[in-house]
Design goal:
The chain is an alpha/beta fold. It folds into 2 domains: about 90 residues, Winged helix-like DNA-binding domain superfamily/Winged helix DNA-binding domain (Arc Repressor Mutant, subunit A, Orthogonal Bundle); about 190 residues, Rossmann fold, CATH 3.40.50.150. It contains 17 helices and 10 strands. The strands form 2 sheets. It has a 7-stranded mixed beta sheet with strand order 6-5-4-7-8-10-9, sandwiched between helices. The protein has a 3-stranded antiparallel beta sheet with strand order 1-3-2. Strand 4, helix 12 and strand 5 form a beta-alpha-beta unit. Helix 2 crosses helix 6 and helix 6 crosses helix 11. The longest helix has 24 residues. The structure holds S-adenosylmethionine. S-adenosylmethionine binds next to helix 11 and strand 5.
Length: about 350
């Protein structure tokens, strides 16, 4: 039993109603959008001054900050004066470990609309996003460049925070000639692999053309391009994947797709580079999995025809495409490295 379950009835009702408010993610998104953490980087500030500099109303801003203070995101150092905390500092854009774009994306109307239509997912098992927008998320993002930029930036924020731990867990990259990151977004994960293992020959970033255009400007990617170690493959990975690859990697990609699509992608890799292994940096479902993973599984239900899979489901997928799941490497994060080798190797 959790402590809340043992409370007397009125307190239980209060504990339950606390869970019913969608205020925290919405207020986080607003704090990021109005650059509150950047303004407070200069030091504690009265809410009236803060509101004037953010071009918002002071009363409502006070309510937003008071709520986030409850969660430890900001601190009210004296009545009406707010300061950053180690959590709110991460809402600043363009700092190492920034979660600015992620906070903004979580507040995006397209994601809120999907949550609003979650009953459709519950009744049908299909993504609420498609019901609301009439198409799947990836084609929709290609037609909405502002939202797509925000999405890609959010992925980068998230990946930057994790990449070092993921990459360190797989020293085998050091001896490889070529690694391809499928659906690699702006290229942070692949660039970290190349930076960490200078003896690794080259990396190829495979993603949709607009995402590749964004990746070309990524400051961590540009020097690697100049060194001739970083190539791009702007294409639908279901139609073609780069040749001459020793390991295809993914990060946070497999949970976006249903089984049939993934088997198609894996088979394409198997045919294109028959000796290559697959290294998937993905979450693996298991008993007692962290709340974060359960939340992620729900996001996949609301927005895509995907899911967070368990070890047996990954093994089945790889097996159908001609690979054997050889091991799962823990990384000390919510992500594991799922390694698969071609059958017979
Ligand atoms: C959840 S994001 C992960 C991005 C990156 N791997 C990371 O972890 O930061 C999924 C990526 O898959 C890409 N993607 C989706 N459909 C694709 C397709 N058909 N071909 C190639 N890339 C695709 C998206 O553009 C996006 O960059």
């Amino acid at each position: 039993m959790t402590p809340e379950q043992t409370l007397p009835a009125p307190s239980r009702a209060a504990a339950l109603s606390e869970l019913m408010f969608p205020s925290t993610p919405r207020c986080l998104a607003l704090a990021a959008e109005y650059r509150i953490a950047e303004l407070l980087a200069e030091g504690p500030m009265a809410v009236a001054d803060l509101a004037a500099r953010a071009y918002v109303e002071p009363g409502p801003l006070h309510k937003v900050l008071a709520l986030l203070t409850e969660d430890g995101v900001f601190e009210e150092t004296e009545p009406g004066v707010f300061a950053n905390t180690p959590l709110s500092e991460l809402l600043q854009a363009d700092i190492p470990g920034s979660m600015h774009a992620m906070a903004r994306m979580v507040g995006s109307p397209w994601l809120w609309d999907s949550w609003g239509a979650l009953d459709h997912s519950l009744a049908t098992g299909r993504p609420a996003f498609r019901k609301v927008h009439g198409t799947a998320l990836w084609p929709w993002l290609q037609e909405h460049p502002d939202e797509a930029r925000m999405f890609n930036r959010a992925m980068t924020d998230f990946t930057e925070a994790l990449s070092d731990a993921l990459v360190a867990a797989y020293p085998e990259f050091a001896t490889m000639s070529a690694v391809c990151d499928l659906g690699g977004g702006e290229g942070t994960f692949l660039a970290t692999i190349l930076d960490t293992y200078p003896s690794l020959g080259r990396g190829v970033l495979a993603d949709l053309p607009p995402v590749i255009e964004q990746a070309r400007k990524h400051p961590q990617v540009m020097p690697l391009v100049e060194q001739g170690r970083f190539d791009f493959a702007a294409a639908d990975f279901f139609s073609q994947v780069p040749v001459g690859i020793e390991a295809y990697v993914t990060k946070q990609v497999m949970h976006s797709w249903p089984d049939a699509a993934l088997v198609r992608l894996l088979r394409r890799c198997r045919e294109t580079s028959p000796g290559a292994r697959f290294v998937a940096a993905e979450m693996v479902h298991h008993d007692g999995v962290a709340r974060f993973v359960k939340n992620f599984d729900l996001v996949m239900l609301a927005t895509m025809s995907g899911q967070v899979r368990d070890e047996r489901q990954f093994a089945d997928l790889f097996d159908q495409a001609g690979y054997r799941l050889s091991r799962i490497v823990p990384t000390g994060t919510a992500f594991s490295l799922i390694e698969a080798v071609p059958h017979g190797l």
